[in-house]
Every structure is written in C-alpha cells, then in structure tokens.
Write a structure and sequence with these properties.
266 residues; Rossmann fold; alpha/beta; 20% strand; globular; five-stranded parallel beta sheet; 10 helices
Length: 266
C-alpha cells in the first residue's frame, strides 16, 4: 500500500468565523492539504457528513447551534465501527471544558492560535490512524496479543481499538471500568492491558495496584492512558506499577513506540 500523505487528505473544516476559516485553510494548504470543504454550524456539518465521508473533521468548539461534541457524536452514530478522525481547534484552556474531548478519542486538540508544529503533528497522527502499519515484535506475534481495553467512554474505547488494530492487533476484550476489568481478569488471561485513569467504581490506578498484587496477573504489561497533567499525580500513578503512561489524545506513533518498549522487555 502506498504511503498516505497530507496532500491526499480530504478535510471538512467546521468554523463559524469566515476569517478563522481562511486562516486555518491557509495553514492546511501550507502543509499540502488542498481538498478542504467548509461548514459553519452543526447542522451544515451534519448535512455534509450525510453525503460524504472525509478523512478528517476539524472543528471549532463553539458553534451557533451547538458544539463540536454534537458533531463528534453524530460521526460516531453514523460510523460506529470506524469513526472519522476528529480534531478540535479551540482557544479554550479550562480543563473541564476540554476533558470531554480528551476522553472521547479525538486525534488532536489544537490551541487557537496554533503553530505549524502543532498542525503538522496533528496531521501526522491522522495519517498514522488512516495508514495501518503492523507493530513488529520479537517476543510476540502482535495478531495473537490478548488485549484488555478499559475505559468508561465508548468513543475512547473505539479510538484505542482502532489505533491498536492498525498496529496488527485483533484480539480485544473491552471493559467499562476497573471493576468490570477485574471480573474479566478472574475469567481469562491477557498479554496487555490498556486502561484509562479516570473511571467510576475502580479507577485505573486502583486497577493497576490490584494487578500488581495479584500472583496470577502481576506480570501483565499495563499502558495507562490519562489526561492528567499534574506531575505529582502522574508520579503517584507511576508508583502503582504501570509500565508506561500515555496522554490523551492517544497518538498512534507514540503508542507504537511505548508498546514496543514494554512488550520487548526481558
């Protein structure tokens, strides 16, 4: 398969400001992207998506008839198995306002204004998502890896599964929280656990501690996905026995590097 390039991408840009549409389109064009369609409301975006399936949707957070979350949910409803990659562009800095997007499996969250580096990295993450490239391991056959995905967000689980599927994995079990995961662990064995941190009932840190204190499962590598930015908090998570930490959004290239590292340890 030929390598997909930025110039090959078809993008729907949803932005209420004509000025901002021009600015973002110009930045995209500087990255070689010229196939750009536009919408300025949730309604017009949905109308476009009813007839077309772009490679990527880039949306502002606030729109006159709703928000980017409405568009993202619509995409999930019409393409439940393989949602269109979604990128948020927003001047919002409050963590609470962005948390829903971090938990939902967006490919990137770009600030306003964003830099060329921000955009290039986000486009590369999109290309990684659209271009499957199998993870090569010496100790495992990636197709045989038994993977437990633990996240209370269905959208996040879909995104994680898609990234891992692109790396060649195919054997997945999904749990909605740590308590659900423990029930699965009592019934079957896994080669890798990918878990969110923020979950009801039993969170990711408590799940990791349970696994490390379990004689039967203590050896299982754990990749924790978290939107937490507090260094002290991250240090506490690390002490719970996880093998690697990954930020949300869940970037394919970083995930590939982390999995290679934790699965090839002696």
């Amino acid at each position: 398969m030929n390598e997909l390039l930025s110039a090959d991408l078809a993008i729907l840009l949803v932005e209420p400001s004509a000025t901002q549409r021009k600015i973002i389109a110009k930045e995209l064009e500087s990255e070689g992207v010229t196939n750009i369609d536009f919408a300025d409301t949730v309604s017009s975006a949905k109308g476009f998506l009813e007839k077309h399936k772009p490679d990527l949707v880039i949306s502002s957070l606030h729109l006159s008839d709703g928000s980017a979350l409405d568009i993202q949910q619509y995409i999930s409803d019409i393409h439940p198995e393989q949602p269109i990659p979604f990128m948020l562009v927003s001047s919002e800095t409050r963590k609470a306002q962005l948390e829903a997007f971090k938990q939902s499996g967006v490919v990137a969250i770009l600030p306003k204004p964003f830099t060329k580096m921000h955009l290039g990295r986000a486009l590369n993450a999109t290309l990684d998502l659209l271009s499957p490239q199998e993870l090569e391991l010496e100790l495992y056959d990636v197709q045989d890896l038994r993977i437990l995905i633990v996240d209370d967000s269905r959208l996040a689980r879909n995104h994680i599964r898609r990234v891992l599927s692109n790396l060649g994995a195919s054997r997945f079990t999904e749990a909605e929280d740590g308590e659900d995961a423990i029930n699965f662990l009592n019934e079957q064995m896994f080669d890798l656990i990918v878990t969110d941190f923020n979950m009801p009932n039993v969170n990711g840190q408590e799940l990791a501690e349970y696994i490390r204190n379990s004689g039967e499962h203590s050896h299982i590598p754990i990749l924790m996905v978290t939107s937490e930015a507090n260094d002290t908090h991250l240090a506490n998570i690390s002490q719970s026995g996880v093998n690697a930490l990954c930020d949300k959004p869940f970037e394919p290239e970083l995930v590939k590097q982390l999995l290679h590292s934790i699965l090839e340890q002696d």
